[in-house]
Amino acid sequence: MSFTGTGAEPAGWLPGVSSMLYGGDYNPEQWPEESWPGDIELMRQAGVNLVSIGIFSWALIEPRRGEYDFGWMDRLFELLHSAGIRISLGTPTASPPAWFFHEHPEAKVVTRDGTTLGFGSRGMASPSSPAYREASVSIATALAERYGNHPALAVWHVHNEYGAPVSDCYSEQSTLAFRRWLQDRYESLDALNAAWGTAFWGQTYREWEHISAPAVAASVVNPAQRLDFARFTSNALLQCFIAERDAIRAVCPHVPITTNFMAGTCESVDLWKWADEVDLVANDHYLIAEDSRSQVGLALSADLTRSIARGKPWMLMEHSTSGVNWQPRNLAKRSGELARNALSHLGRGADAVLFFQWKASRSGAEKFHSAMLPHAGTGSRIWSEVCALGEGLSGLDEVLGSTVSADVAVLWDWESFWAQDLEWRPSEDLAHRERVNAFYDRLWRDQLTVDFAHPEAELAQYKLVVAPASYLLTQAAADNLRRYVEAGGTLVVSYFSAIVNEYDAVHEGGFVAPLRDVLGLTVEEFLPLRVGETVRLTLDAITGDVWTDDVALAGAEVVAGFEDGPAAGKPAITRNTLGAGAAWYVSTRLDAEQLSVVMDRAYADAGLVAGDGPDELELIRRRGAVAEYLIAINHGNKPVDLPVGGTDLLSGEAGESLKIEAGGVRVIRTDHRYR
User: Fold this and answer.
1) Domains in the chain, number
2) Segments of 339-483 assigned E as strands
3) Which of the following is catalytic: 161, 244, 502, 618?
4) Which residue among 561, 576, 606 closes a domain?
5) Taking a C-beta distance cutoff of 8 angstroms, is the pair 465, 439 a contact?
6) pLDDT tens digit sequence for 178-204
């Protein structure tokens, strides 16, 4: 950690914090100041002990360049501090004020089609704008000098949701910065031309100033250039964070600094690289309301966040008490769903549960977004559930600092996703996220806890590794997977993996070449399917759609073949042994239900046992120094008997076995005998 802690807090946690954190964004500037004491009294009633402030307050803090008005924030700090509520202080740089864009119109974001975005919404300036960087550092420094030593300050919250609502910018300033980034990356134009394959379509560059940002062109723009621009964009945003972080740290080195990621939803930033730059990881997550299994997407995001945090405790910086305002149909959460969502995040490693926002806004674009204190007030169902959750969390302090361990890793690589999602792929149905979701859903149903891992990361601790969408696979990653299997690991690889290298060039030797010996096969040709077309497999009457491969065996055994379709008579599912381990290949799209046919066999190879509870029962374990905790969540409509003894920290109930009611949640201190 970069900040100076007391030495007593759990690894990766906040100095001086010995309890679960509960609260949300508080935007008191939207309300008369005389209402603030009443708000804070209600916070105390709800059990709130942390609020985020200042996130969109730049225009109030600095009404004109270099003129600061801290009076209202000084009073807010004192009110919160006197109530015993800690503060997550935001830097307001996600929403520069009108005066900034008036002075620096060149800092506005330009879209890929050349549109200059105007003022009046949220969203930062161009991340490559020198004026924006300078102004951001200035306001961050002023805030650090003013509040860096205030006893209420618990954590710095830099910016807000980097990459949303805009990430890439195609302005002249971005083009200049992109050229500098390319010069650092490639050093010579010869190296760049080779990496980008510019001999194709006569794109060879002889001068650096001839290279531009990959704006809309007559046809498809060089995919290697597009991929590098995505890398550049993630780095440009990261440099904005680092600039603010370093400015704060120079004044205030003893308070941790973070920013709120959107793991699993915002794909324009490579959070593996970002994780090393924050003092602790924080995440925002919002349900896709129309998804009938939205609890699975929530779990995926939480597991991904914990993985980005390298297993350390993390903060849920934002989620919603009920419906949001920005989806096509903003469904309200049902009774009890608020607690189920919050405690699923906690079960998967969060030691802070925060919402957007404390008090529902009466004006603006988010006036229909739910809040802890809704428009309906303290007589509402939401308020009752908010207070009940606060009371429940207050009894979970002993869980603080405990960790989650997983036997399964799912490979996740933002660079591969960026590359796969570019134009002119063999089928527009090749959605990387669909495959990740399907495999994750299968593992969730089987009650197996999942970490996510970069393909080049250490994998030896996992019994099973799944590669649902590894279109771009470097040679280093392939070598890593080979070592994993040879040492006894079990690997499952889905179709359209190991196709290109880091420059989006097909691997020398053809498709899946770097994994040919691991999988014991080669793919001679892609055989995508028509819309609605299905193919039958010779195993358990399962069917695939979207995709088939023309697989040529090179040592693998056939577990299932294709009965019909363009790959009729060819292998569909294979297994290959290498060293002490085994590698499986699935060459068609199976849904989460049908994937059990493959995964049950892979579990047997890996020595894993799927859970035998109902599909709607979510079970996660956290392990502490002296106790183990089972977080059990019943998403179904029937009670379930839990085969575990212990004490439910939410209700105080204890016994050799416990029942969980329909829609209920239990946090059980167990006797360590559970699975």
Assistant:
1) 4
2) 350-355, 408-411, 450-453, 464-467
3) 161
4) 606
5) no
6) 999 999 999 999 999 999 999 999 999
